[in-house]
Amino acid sequence: MSLVLETPVDGPARTLRLPAPLRLDSGQSLEGVEIAYCTYGTLNATRSNAILICHALTGDQFVASTNPSTGRPGWWPAMVGPGKPLDPDRYFIICANILGGCMGSTGPGATDPKTGAPYGLSFPVITIADMARAQAELVTALGIDSLFLVVGGSMGGMIALEWVKCFPERMFACALIATAARHSAQNIAFHEVGRQAIMADPDWRGGDYAKLGVRPEKGLAVARMAAHITYLSEQALQRKFGRELQSKALSFGFDADFQVESYLRHQGQAFVDRFDANSYLYITRAMDYFDLAQSHDGRLADALTAAQDVRFCVLSFTSDWLYPTTESRRIVRALNAAGAQASFVEIRSDKGHDAFLLDEPVMREVLDGFLASAAKARGL
Amino acid sequence: MSLVLETPVDGPARTLRLPAPLRLDSGQSLEGVEIAYCTYGTLNATRSNAILICHALTGDQFVASTNPSTGRPGWWPAMVGPGKPLDPDRYFIICANILGGCMGSTGPGATDPKTGAPYGLSFPVITIADMARAQAELVTALGIDSLFLVVGGSMGGMIALEWVKCFPERMFACALIATAARHSAQNIAFHEVGRQAIMADPDWRGGDYAKLGVRPEKGLAVARMAAHITYLSEQALQRKFGRELQSKALSFGFDADFQVESYLRHQGQAFVDRFDANSYLYITRAMDYFDLAQSHDGRLADALTAAQDVRFCVLSFTSDWLYPTTESRRIVRALNAAGAQASFVEIRSDKGHDAFLLDEPVMREVLDGFLASAAKARGL
After folding, report:
1. Half-sphere exposure of B154 toward its Cβ, with a 13 Å CA cutoff?
2. How many CB pairs under 8 A join A and B?
3. Is residue B8 assigned to a domain?
4. Which of A90, A188, A292, B223 can pair with B197 through a Cys bridge, CB separation 3.0 to 4.6 Å?
5. ipTM exceeding 0.90, yes/no
6. How near does any CA of chain B get to the CA of A81, in Å?
7. Do A254 and B121 touch (CB under 8 A)?
8. Which residues of B touch A240 (CB under 8 A)?
9. Which of B230, B261, B286 is a domain's end point?
């Protein structure tokens, strides 16, 4: 593909339409793929200061600007912004809604050009590598051969790992935060609960709800509630809510007596307002399929050999039970075996998996140091 | 109440109808309560060898005999039987379906004598203490003043703790296995997900499904799937299933590709065949309400002061993240502060919460030793 966009400018979200069909891991091709993205900062003359931020399962391209659909500010304020580690005054920052998403990039809610109706379940099952390939097309279209950094937390880290595997020559550094190189049985199990909750909702209509003007809101809310528990540590839930009641006494009924119940219900409801149920099915499926070493008979180091010239920073959080430190250590061991430079820090936090989205001073400091060193080596 | 049943005999399940209304913690009374129970072994002449086994959330009275509705053998074969710690050749063993249950004891699926229709949501919200009080009526009716042992795992341990609080003079010893003296925020959160899944099912019909001849099967299956994950450790899931596929390759669809998905779906479906959705709502609610120290401003030792003459054995499992060892230690510390004898063992196991249902040799040995010592002290 040779499409190169005009010199990118900072501003509202834009959309790239891929000029050629996107070949998928499933063997299928997807035509007319659109990738919705935001950029922040200015690409330098040598096009060497670009950073790609990969978002998590329910994230989006609005990493540092207001999400127009929710009106909420960017989702990573602690990390992206002037004076922050990912500084648009210094770097050209790209964040794209993933393939399969529902914030403007092509996903199951998009219109199938063959039928003129929403894809629904006729959308092909995609993989994390497919998401990375779609991003690579965007990076190419932006005129960037080599990214200074690919960074992601949670599923974003998985996408970054696929970049490492598929496009190691197109990246200088990589930061992997609260992530894993494969989905565990427990990870798959929680996602399967969510998918079953969605598909149990009669308004899901076999995935055709968009054509029929309904939405499987209850099922999607239950899916979000179950997932949300895994994003927090037991300690964080206990500290935030404990057994605190909504009112003074137990109701002896089934309303939300406990604050934690009310909080979870709110999380479920707020999610329904901003997310598409079929996207949730497809993205969780892609995550469950993710196992970077699978193509190398389980030998993760072999999957990473081409990455020996990339500099890595791997971060985990002590209370993250979704992608625990053991998974980060496995990545670091494989990187070491592959001959790559990898620094690893396990950050003490009781906030669970979602700590990566919060302002964790150690995370900021470690990434600041890592980026300073990498920028110097890159001549930035 | 003065009803005393004829000399109990070993045999199939029987049912006791309480002669007087049962006063509940909610302030309501429940008339015509029936308690379905099984007994094993023979009550001795001094009526001093009776053991009450309290079952867990989805357990039943068929602890050591075939469940007639499922055709499956008793649920605690490792612990109950000739030559096992809870030996019917030596003890008179009682196990009753809890109040609120769906295996014969009065619950939301029972007929409301006032209307002639199933209670549904007009059944009063009950507590763990209400369950213990109903059991105490049964024990009285069986002519037993003082139980040799009250034993329970998981929710069964919570019922046993309410026995300790409400009827310490009616028990000689108590074994608390894989349990807690209160439900944590995370415990409540998982239960709330299950309840929301059930109530989101349109066939739940506001709890009136039984009157309408339908059942919220999909919602109940999702609730069970979510709960089932919490019964196993991450390690157990990984060892049992890992990322093993059902067939040779990924399907690139939404069928159960992974064995863990198929296993969870099966758990959900099998549960629907044997359990009532409203019972699930009521029992999980009772568990969430459970906080033994709440009546004593959070001072657990104060709630247990009357138990200083009861001998305790407290067991936890290293990989149980539903009711982790910290909760057992909290109970032990409170028992020590209350002046009660308490032995405590944390058993090394990677099987998670459900280890208490399995044949864990250390659990067997510890309970054997505890019971031998207690039996000697009791003069059995």
Report:
1. 19
2. 156
3. no
4. B223
5. yes
6. 34
7. yes
8. 185
9. B286
Are residues A89 and A166 both part of a single domain?
A: yes
For helices B185-200 and A217-231, the axis angle rounded to 10 degrees is 170
**Contact: B200, A221; criterion CB under 8 Å:** yes
pLDDT digits (tens, 9 = 90+) for A221-260: 999 999 999 999 999 999 999 999 999 999 999 999 999 9
B64: its two tokens? 């050591």
What positions of A carry a catalytic annotation?
A: 154, 320, 353
Q: What residues make up the domain containing A221?
A: 186-286
| Whether residues B193 and B84 fall in one domain | no
Tell me: pLDDT of A7 over 70.
no
- Please indicate, yes or no, whether residues B155 and B202 belong to a single structural domain of this protein: no
Show residues of chain A in contact with B192, CB under 8 Å: 225, 256, 258, 260-261, 264-265
Provide CB contacts within 8 A for B220, sequence distance 6+.
Answer: B197, B198, B201, B268, B271, B272, B275, B277, B280
Q: Which residues in chain A touch residue B261, judged by CB atoms under 8 angstroms apart?
A: 188-189, 192
Determine whether the interchain pair A200/B189 forms a contact, defined as Cβ–Cβ distance below 8 Å. no
State the total domains in chain A.
2
CA separation (Å) from A225 to A220, B155, B363? Answer: 9, 23, 35
Cross-chain residue pair A222–B196, CB shorter than 8 Å: yes
B185/A237 touch (CB, cutoff 8 Å), yes or no: yes
What is d(CA A209, CA A215) in angstroms, rounded to the nearest whole number?
6
Tokens of A261: 């119940």
B165-206, pLDDT tens digit by residue?
Answer: 999 999 999 999 999 999 999 999 999 999 999 999 999 999
